[in-house]
Specification:
alpha/beta; N-acetyltransferase domain-containing protein; 13 strands; six-stranded mixed beta sheet; Rossmann fold; about 25% strand; Aminopeptidase; about 30% helix
């Protein structure tokens, strides 16, 4: 009989043995053997951290697979690390555990979106996440390893959150492609090419411009609470903010046509060096923040505390 339970103190040595097995280390960003004392300290912090979730799959009384969810830089997201007992690989335990964990109360209370990273050459891990409904969002290189990034919304509010899109060119196209992948439909989409050419040649957009008026009308008509703006000119009129309860997210080009930065008005500025292929992922990040805030009142969220740096590199794959 298979059951999923939270990790406990008895799992400490089991996880260390799995993590230090050569086949597991093969799929780690850092493939060093972990020192037992360092692992014990890390495991104590894991058990005591309310922001993280650790689950173990038990089959016929034996632990066969482990999954951990760690918080991301954006609220409402968790990153998955999953590991199967070296003696039980290839039996579908990773698939069974992932499928159950995505609906576990401790996970859904902490996140509306989950993400994972897999090595490009790890076909088994890719099959695992594709089979669970994850979508490929991009790729990168870290510590000499080429990896793929996967994401999956786990809250039904993702397809209900009222937001609008404005933009032009490849940035808007990238966002629309991402939203279609996850079957997320914005309340409205405004393509600003004619407005931009006719009214904002100076690079300054006024609140009385046809584009601003049109966006305000769309917000009022559709009930949109957030606006994602792609490739807009250099200034957003403060008057427009009043029409969006959660603010405006502006995505503009940087010096290179292959880069962009994301600016959140008012008051918060974040900078990313990204290609247009990952712009959709950036919008998904901020949409997750909004959905999580709507789903989870502040007094019901897990208490946050500083997280220690883990001496145990995540085991990538299953």
């Amino acid at each position: 009989m298979k059951i999923v339970r939270p990790i406990c103190a008895d799992d400490c040595r089991v996880l260390l043995a799995w993590r230090n097995h050569p086949e597991t280390r093969r799929w780690c960003f850092d493939d060093r053997v972990i020192d037992p004392l360092a692992h014990e300290a890390w495991f104590r912090d894991l058990l005591g951290d309310p922001q993280r979730v650790g689950l173990m799959l038990i089959d016929e009384g034996l632990p066969v697979a482990h999954i951990r969810f760690d918080p991301c830089h954006q609220p409402g997201q968790l990153t998955i690390s999953i590991m199967t007992s070296p003696e039980h690989r290839g039996r579908g335990y990773g698939r069974d555990l992932l499928g159950q964990a995505l609906h576990h109360e401790e996970v859904t209370r902490r996140a509306v979106l989950v993400r994972a990273e897999t090595f490009e050459n790890n076909a088994a891990a890719r099959k695992l996440f594709e089979g669970a409904g994850f979508k490929l969002m991009g790729h990168g290189t870290r510590q000499g390893h080429a990896y793929l990034e996967w994401r999956l919304p786990i809250s039904p509010l993702f397809v209900q959150y009222p937001f609008g899109l404005e933009g032009e060119g490849p940035l808007l196209a990238a966002v629309l492609d991402m939203l279609a992948t996850f079957e997320i439909t914005p309340r409205f989409v405004v393509r600003s090419e004619p407005y931009s050419r006719e009214n904002v040649a100076s690079g300054v957009l006024g609140a009385s411009s046809p584009l601003s008026i049109h966006l305000q009308d769309q917000a009022l008509a559709t009930g949109a609470r957030a606006l994602f703006i792609c490739d807009w000119p250099e200034r957003i009129p403060p008057e427009l903010l009043a029409h969006f309860k959660d603010g405006i997210f502006a995505l503009r080009r940087a010096a290179s046509q292959n880069e962009a930065f994301l600016e959140l008005h008012p008051g918060l500025f974040e900078c990313y060096g990204v290609t247009t292929a990952t712009v959709g992922g950036m919008v998904l990040d901020h949409l997750a923040h909004l959905v999580f805030r709507r789903q989870s009142p502040a007094d019901e969220r897990p208490t946050a505390r500083p997280r220690p740096v883990s001496p145990v590199p995540d085991a990538e794959g299953h």
